[in-house]
Write a structure and sequence with these properties.
single chain; mainly alpha; Rna Polymerase Sigma Factor, Chain: A
């Protein structure tokens, strides 16, 4: 059952956000760094175009990391503010999306560390039964899909930040391993091992909740 849908569809963002590797590649083809150069020369509209292109993917990444829409919005906004403040220092040594996600990732991790240090309770994803009601009374495709989405959200929230970030960047944002390694500042082998571990933990979580019965 679960294998019938991809991660982006299961989490309810397929066709909504431009987070796939193909979409990001198209963005770069149309000149992200050209827009950065224009923004460096004072073109406000050029920077606004960068925000328009990436606000969806960045917002979704932050949301999966911190499980709070309000906090994710603040982190995403702060990410773009930091890019704007550092415009004069930006150089096209990597994809612009890699630079931007790297900033968002650092801010999200800082948020999680600060929340843990303060003892704040982080927002928890919806329980599958709460999100769908009694699925046995409505065993249709939409009900099953909604239940799987809720279970996946819960599973993501249970992963460590290091495992969650690689899984989100790969399975939801669709980035390649090299881009993920740059964003997370780790080796390719570390990305692969963390991703394998994250996938296995999520698989075990889904199996514990019923697996194919979902």
């Amino acid at each position: 059952m679960i294998a019938q849908w991809g991660a982006r569809e299961l989490l309810g963002i397929d066709g909504v956000q431009q987070g796939s590797s193909e979409a990001i590649a198209r963005m770069n083809e149309t000149g992200d760094w050209e827009l950065v150069a224009r923004a460096q020369d004072g073109d406000v509209d050029a920077f606004a175009e960068l925000v328009r292109r990436y606000q969806g993917p960045v917002m979704h990444f932050c949301m999966r990391m911190v499980s709070s829409e309000r906090d994710a919005e603040e982190i995403a906004q702060d990410s773009f503010i930091r890019v704007y403040r550092h415009l004069p220092r930006l150089r096209p040594r990597a994809r612009f999306s890699t630079v931007l996600f790297g900033i968002a990732r650092n801010l999200a991790l800082n948020f999680l560390r600060d929340a843990k240090r303060r003892g704040d309770a982080l927002a928890q994803p919806l329980d599958a039964d709460m999100a769908t009601g009694d699925s046995r009374s409505r065993p249709d495709r939409s009900t099953r899909l909604a239940q799987i989405r809720a279970a996946l959200e819960d599973g993501l929230g249970r992963l460590s930040p290091g495992h969650r970030e690689v899984l989100v960047l790969r399975e939801i944002q669709g980035l390649d391993y090299e881009a993920i390694a740059r964003i997370c500042r780790c080796r390719l082998g570390t990305v692969r091992s963390r991703l394998a571990r994250a996938r296995e933990q999520l698989r075990l979580h889904m199996a514990a909740l019923g697996g194919e019965d979902l």
